[in-house]
Amino acid sequence: MGTRHWLRSDSPTGGRMLLIALSLVAMFASLANSAAVMSVDLGSEWMKVGVVSPGVPMEIALNKESKRKTPTTIAFRNGDRVFGEDAQTLGVRFPSNSYGYLVDLLGKTIDNPMVDLYRKRFPYYDIVEDPVRRTVVFRAGDEQYTIEELIAQLLQVAKGYAEDSTGQLITECVLIVPGFYGQAERTALVSAARLANLKVLQLINDYTAVALNYGIFRRKEINETAQYFLFYDMGAYKTSAAVVSYQLVKDKATRETHPVVQVLGVGYDRTLGGLEMQVRLRDYLGKEFNKMGKTKTDVFSNPRAMAKLFKEAGRLKNVLSANTEHYAQIEGLLDEQDFRLLVKREQFEELCKDLYERVTAPLDKALAASGLALDVINQVVLFGGNTRVPKVQDILRSHIGQELAKNLNADEAACMGAVYRAADLATGFKVKKFITKDAVLFPIQVVFDREGESGTTRQVRRTLFGSMNSYPQKKVITFNKHTDDFEFTVQYAELDAVLRGDGDTLGSVDLARVKLSEVAKKLKASVAENVESKGIKAHFMLDDSGIFSLANVELVLEKTVTKEDEDDESTFQKIGNTISKLFSGDSTDKPAADKPSEEGAEGKSEEESDSGKDGKASEEEDKGKKPAKEQEADEGGSKDAKQETGTGEGGAAGNESGKKAEEGTEAKNATVKPKIVTLKEPIPSKVELTYVAPLEGDLFEASAKRLSALDAVDKAKKRRETALNALESFVIDAQVKMDEEEYASCATEEEIEQIRKRCGEISEWLYEDGSDADAETYETKLEELRGVANEVYARHWEHQERPIALNALKQMINGSEGFLRNARNLTKDTNPEKDVFTAVEIETLEKAIRSTIEWRDTEVAEQEKLARNAPVRLTVKDITDRMGMLDREVKYLVNKLKLWRPKVKPTPPPKPEKTTSGKEDEKEQTSSEEKPESEPVLEKAPEEEADGTGSEEQTIDPTTTQKEEKGDHTEL
Prior knowledge:
Shape: extended
Pfam family, one: HSP70
GO biological process, one term: endoplasmic reticulum unfolded protein response
Distance between the termini: 15 Å
CATH topology of the largest domain: Nucleotidyltransferase, domain 5
Oligomer: single chain
Protein name: Hypoxia up-regulated protein 1
Mean pLDDT: 80
GO molecular function: ATP binding; ATP-dependent protein folding chaperone
Structural class: alpha+beta
Radius of gyration: 41 Å
Largest sheet: 6 strands, mixed
CATH superfamily of the largest domain: ATPase, nucleotide binding domain
CATH architecture of the largest domain: 2-Layer Sandwich
Number of domains: 4
CATH class of the largest domain: Alpha Beta
Family: Belongs to the heat shock protein 70 family.
């Protein structure tokens, strides 16, 4: 909150209470206007969830097992759905029903090489093709799940963990993606988030999130000189490297200096990771088991045995990272045959020999893309779980010739960087600015046909977003030779240099086909004698999530406004212009050419930028090397240098005319240049995506309906389990308590017999007919049993709590009697100067205390005559009611004592002295006589005394907001 409060420090009681009240109001207002946000690192093998909420710093949300990371696995069995470790456990028994390592299947068609590799690694899955979108669908019996539906369910689990951690509703998130995700993968992940009812604030690349996390904790080390770091990641599925720079940069618009982390170069290998090592170790163990000849069945033909081998291979891989040898052992691997084998680290490294040869390639690619040498890199920083493998570290260390930096949390660095970004993007949080500039990995170009002078048509390509250009940014392409409807294509460009033979993994090269209509109609209606076409401009955008889009298309026209056109102004317009000039001080003789409009300047700039290009589409940016504001040269705001000085002879003539006007002469032959005005007409455009179509429309609604049905089943299952557990617990608890003297003494023989009988009936029913009952039946049975047993439980509670309540009443009586003794000394009869209380008030309090003591003694005696199983006479509520009555009487007198102020006797006026002026004495005597006999002294309100003199002000700001910006914020 932006409001600031000032309270007097010399008003201890009122100030303290007001401070507490204001703090509570500020807290609730902050909670009402703010909401928690989260980040999700949805890795191939593990999922981490970062959260930040008002008043709580960034942290990792724990799962239901109180762990900081969760396996990204989901399993279905007999209508039940489980996640994480439960899904992994179920996957060992039913591997075809448990799905993991899903993220690299997003946005892939069924014929993608990555889908073929997934089938090879996990042959027991039944993967089919979506008939409409040709994407991956998992089939299990009669059920089918698209890849977006499975990912959405994992995001729902992450959302649940975040909400449990913060105690607030989560609706916004930042998701971490691999840097090599193309347009299809990114839009597919956004669709999955929508299915999970999450708004994606940004998709952030994993190395960018890590670099941001690294920078925010080393902010003081960043200065105006660029510092270069290389972040190396080896995860379960892929390996990547990124060169980044840290530098303090001054913003030209706000004049503020902020740290900036910019990605300069990226290299990756999308199939090199811990999963490939684990699969090779699994296959090695399978071959060794077959060699033992314990069974005639081939272990590779049994999905359950393969799942067991895969799990053991993962455990063995982790152990061999810290030990030189270890035993692989599985009980009942196949045909009830056990498996035990000693595996040495050298054997494991020999299996992955060719993989280790690829370890340094991403690092070298990143350096090459950045144009930097290794000797200017300050540090090579590791993150990702598989960088812990000793062999990987040895290879990297020998390759770079220096020690590796391991001062990052390899598992959580990306998640924590992304949640910082989430807090920056969300409303209700105030964070210290840290600017991120990511880099384009796959260049994007526009391809269109242009007719030459000879009548032949040739294809023209113009790069929009070049390799390693920073984003987010906007680009504009001008088509200045098309006079009829036409279309163009948006494609990936120069993929061979980036993918190096793996181009098929990215999917379709074409991204979109754009069809423009009404071009000829707009030109015919707009172009006239004084209106000239400057071409058709298409505005493109690459947002901070790396998703490409066409913003708008427009026809740009330049209209020449002559003196005759200006003379056509109406009389009222001329009068208005004359009046405005009089007030503004403009000379009527000054030519219009001295002040060209911004539109005119824009038109001139565009005309010059298009010249010399022979009708080709112009890329009006310097290939992304300039800042975004400088790149948008076509959108105005910058004036031509000639126009700025009064273009040509017209400007000189205007200046000369101004001089002669000052000398009392007139310029008669001054030349005035026509004014140029830029006009823009929107051109209708239709965009048809040519890569994997996003999940939307009817298909999205169908998927959302399926997920809602699964959620309803889970809720019903949870309610049934909760009701069943509550009923079983109550039955067991009641049976045990009826055997304890403490409870049995509070019940009659008939009540004990009835409770035991009812518990026995329900227990027998639970183990026979009630095992398949629904939640409502369990809840009804529980209410019936509680109706029988609660009377006994209530008596027991009364007997347990009564001594405590009576002791509290005793203390209250003692305190009241002590107050009464002191109050007797504050009456008119005993102390005339401090007559706070009247005799009636003292007598009333005395009667209240006496009646309370008499009531207590009588009721306690009567209650002690009753048996423990008899109806309770003296209840805890009766005691608290008596305490409330006595408390009201005492509080009345206490408040009166607080408000009482002693009367101040009036000061007698001084005797008048004989002076030369008798009138002054009379005035003084009159003024003193006009004073009342007794004027009470009132305590001044805090605002009356807070005049800045004589008292120190204490500034209270209920929020931790920095003073630069108002609003509800949480400082991070």
